[in-house]
Every structure is written in structure tokens, then in C-alpha cells.
Amino acid sequence: MELDRFQSFFDCCVGNWSSERTYHYLTRQYVERSHTHFVIEPVSIDCKAKVLNDNAYSEVPDDLDRCPGYQLKFDTVSETGERVSQQLNLLFVPKTQDGKFIDGDYLRDRAYEEDRPIISKFRFDNDTRELLMTTNYTRVVSVDSITLVNPNLRIRKILNYQRSPLGHPLDTVALVGFGVEQKGS
Fold first, then answer.
1. Are 100 and 54 in contact (CB under 8 A)?
2. I want to staple 43 with a disulfide (CB 3.0 to 4.6 A). Which of 25, 47, 124, 174 is the partner?
3. Considering all CA atoms of the chain, what is the largest pairwise distance in Å, rounded to the nearest integer?
4. Ranges of residues in the chain whose predicted pLDDT is under 50
5. Cβ contacts of residue 94 below 8 Å, gap of 6+?
6. Distance between CA 125 and CA 102 in Å, rounded?
7. pLDDT for the residue 1
8. 68: nearest Cα among 46, 94, 95
9. 11-43: b (≥16 Cβ within 10 Å) or e
10. What are phi and psi of 52, to 5 degrees?
11. Residues 6 or more apart in contact with residue 42 via CB below 8 angstroms
12. 86-139 pLDDT tens trace
């Protein structure tokens, strides 16, 4: 598996970032803007192993160095003054490559929507440098896209679908989010 561009994507993501986002809550017909400051730092092999253990992940890779792992800390302030802060560790385990796409599992020791470890799926496009992450939460399915435009600019898109019965397509969007993320000092 060719992981150079995949790893380069994450190397560019390390550092301090500032994000301006707009969230469209379709079920409430409400639009909200927010500002987020976040920091991404690489984690040790021990921390990667802990994320695997926290998720009871059975397919432990032979070489954890090939699995990008990071600590994410963020502080968000909405236009109404509501504040949310969180810190979590995450790990990407590449599993297959089909042409330009790398697919695998995305593990966190703490989920955004629910306070628990969680395993999600990811797909990375080597050509467009888009990382697409899909998480099945209890009530929603979140599809989060990060496109690295250049080492200092990322575009973010978030779609939260209401969970559909098993075997049915996702067709009810509850939230749409858009963001521009710029790397700072």
C-alpha cells in the first residue's frame, strides 16, 4: 500500500488551526456560525496502542508507525456565546487501497456526539487530498469531509443524517456544516 500522500496529508494537519464554520440545522430551520481554535499534535506508539485497546480493536496492525495518530484539542465559540471544548486521541488504520483510494478504520478514544470510544470508517482520495470519515452514532450518521487545499488551508464539510432502518439509504439530512480552516502560528 502506498501511504506517502496519506501521511503527507496528516503531516500538514499538525499544528494550530482556526476555523470559521456555518451549521445549517435542517430539522429546526436554524443557521448558526461558530469559531473554533484547534491544535493537532502527533501521539506516541503507546497512545496509539491505548486508542486501539480503548476500542477493543481486534485487527491490530503489525506496524503502528504506519498508522497516523494524533491528539486533537479544540475550543469552539458559537455566535450565541455557547462554548464547547474537547480533547481526544485518534488513530487511522489503513486497510486497503483501490487505485487512488485508501480505506480503513478511524478510531477515537472519545466520540464527538457521544462520550465513548468509537470506530468509524474513512476513505482518503490521493488525488484530491480529501479525507472522508463516516461515523455511525446512536441517532445520526455523520459524514465529515476534510479537503487539504494547501498546507495552510483546509475546507470542511459535515453532513449528519438521521439514522435509517438497516438496509435503507440515508435520505434525511439533519445538519449541514461548512468550514474554512486556516493554519496559524
1. no
2. 47
3. 48
4. none
5. 1, 3, 6, 66, 67, 102, 103, 104
6. 7
7. 76
8. 94
9. ebbeeebebebebbeeeeeeebebebebbbeeb
10. -60, -45
11. 14, 69, 70, 71
12. 999 999 999 999 999 999 999 999 887 788 999 999 999 999 999 999 999 989
CATH for 4-183 is 2.40.128.20
Residue type, 100: K
Phi-psi region of 167 (alpha: psi -120 to 50; beta: other; left: phi over 0): left
Q: For residue 140, what pLDDT is reported? A: 92
pLDDT, position 185: 61
Please report the sign of the dihedral spanned by the C-alpha atoms of residue 53, residue 142, residue 98, residue 167: positive
E strand or H helix that includes residue 10: helix 4-13
Place of cell 488525488: 127
69 φψ region: left (φ > 0), alpha (ψ -120 to 50), beta (else)? beta
Domain ranges of the chain: 4-183
Q: How long is the chain?
A: 185
Separation CA 18–CA 146 (nearest Å): 14
In degrees, rounded to 5, the angle at the alpha carbon of residue 184 between the alpha carbons of residues 180 and 185 is 170
Reading the block at residue 24, the C-alpha cell is 445549517
Look at residue 8 in the predicted model and tell me its pLDDT: 95
